[in-house]
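lol forgot to send this yesterday, sorry. struct tokens for the thing we talked abt
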């Protein structure tokens, strides 16, 4: 009999887990508390270490229909005049090094792709998890629905993919307090017809300045420009991707910056704002028949653009460990999955901390040295530890 796996959380990580598990013969069902499946947030980097696993599912071929392939991976600019500090052509060189291109996409487009590949019968909306109990032989889940009714589900295994405020994590792992970075992020989407021409190029542009930085790149087939502005948080402490911010507040944060930054901000009609927190790496992800995946296991700051990619890596590794496994040996397979994934995810999680310090240097000798270092760098090859993960070393050029 096929292994029954209940996945709590219908975001990118949860749906990816269901798809990979179904590909190895497991009976994987997703339970999502929202009554309609939609991904909050906006732009996302779909890096080569995410594209390659999606190719194994047959999904990567659809990426060009909505995602924008980065031809120049990075372009760093100076805050006050837009002077290019460093740029690097990516395109075919990325494919040569890592076996896949790098895209940027709207989260909702990627989520729709995943959902289209999952049978509708395996996605259960309006299911908010209220309790989880591992009795040794199976796991009992209880869900509440908006009409006041309850639903009970039994599964051989449960995977918590329910995000930074995970109910499943709290049930099996010691409580880990959120660590506040002192920063917050503004996010907005600008229609392409309103955006300055330079923002429409297939480039991820990063403007660096004192105490803040500003990122933009096109998404949704070039119909929108995704904007992310990282600034000191002040009194803002709300950790929510749906909290409303004010465009005027974002504009004030960039007083004195290049006119093109302000043109892009002025083109936005609304923005979201959230405080940036992460968590200290967990000492364990697994307890008996329950384990974690994605942000529920390793919530990280966004400075490497690896949150979703690490969740997809989790999903792929989970399926490899559970493929062909019976229900009696499934708990041991979950421990193997954790042994494979936790060191890698912890490394990315910790390296994402402190990256903003270098980005936010005040003008002066340290900033000037940083800019010289950029000019001499090779970020594409220096990212082999991220982008080349799982490849043969000869293919990565390392």
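and heres what i got for the seq, position by position
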């Amino acid at each position: 009999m096929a292994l029954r796996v209940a996945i709590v959380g219908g975001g990118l990580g949860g749906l990816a887990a269901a798809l990979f598990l179904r590909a190895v013969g497991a009976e994987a069902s997703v339970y999502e508390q929202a009554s309609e499946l939609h991904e909050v947030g906006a732009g996302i980097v779909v890096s080569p270490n995410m594209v390659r696993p999606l190719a194994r599912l047959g999904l990567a071929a659809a990426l060009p229909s909505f995602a924008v392939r980065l031809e120049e991976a990075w372009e760093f600019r100076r805050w006050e005049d837009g002077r290019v500090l460093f740029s690097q052509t990516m395109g075919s060189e990325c494919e040569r090094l890592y076996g896949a291109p790098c895209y940027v996409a709207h989260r909702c487009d990627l989520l729709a792709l995943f959902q289209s590949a999952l049978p509708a019968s395996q996605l259960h909306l309006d299911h908010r998890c209220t309790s989880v109990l591992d009795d040794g032989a199976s796991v009992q889940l209880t869900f509440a629905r908006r009409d006041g009714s309850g639903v009970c589900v039994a599964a051989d295994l449960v995977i918590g993919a329910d995000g930074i405020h995970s109910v499943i994590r709290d049930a099996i792992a010691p409580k880990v307090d959120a660590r506040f970075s002192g920063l917050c992020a503004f996010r907005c989407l600008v229609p392409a017809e309103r955006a300055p021409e330079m923002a429409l190029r297939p480039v991820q542009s990063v403007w660096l300045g004192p105490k803040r930085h500003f990122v933009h790149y096109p998404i949704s087939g070039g119909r929108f420009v995704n904007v992310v502005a990282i600034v000191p948080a002040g009194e803002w402490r709300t950790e929510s991707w749906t909290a409303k911010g004010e465009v005027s507040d974002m504009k004030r944060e960039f007083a004195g910056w290049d006119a093109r930054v302000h043109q892009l901000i002025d083109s936005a009609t609304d923005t979201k704002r959230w405080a940036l927190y992460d968590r200290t790496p967990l000492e364990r992800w697994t307890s008996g028949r329950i384990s974690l995946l994605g942000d529920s296991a390793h919530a990280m700051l966004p400075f490497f653009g690896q949150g979703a990619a690490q969740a997809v890596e989790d999903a792929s590794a989970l399926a490899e460990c559970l493929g062909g496994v019976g229900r009696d040996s499934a708990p041991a397979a979950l421990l193997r999955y954790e042994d494979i994934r936790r060191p890698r995810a912890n490394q990315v999680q910790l390296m994402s901390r402190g990256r903003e310090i270098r980005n936010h240097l005040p003008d002066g000798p340290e900033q000037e040295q940083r800019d010289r270092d950029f000019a001499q760098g090779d970020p594409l090859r220096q990212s082999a530890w991220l982008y080349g993960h799982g490849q043969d070393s000869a293919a990565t050029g390392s």
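Residues 393-398 have pLDDT under 50 and may be disordered. anyway ping me if u want another try
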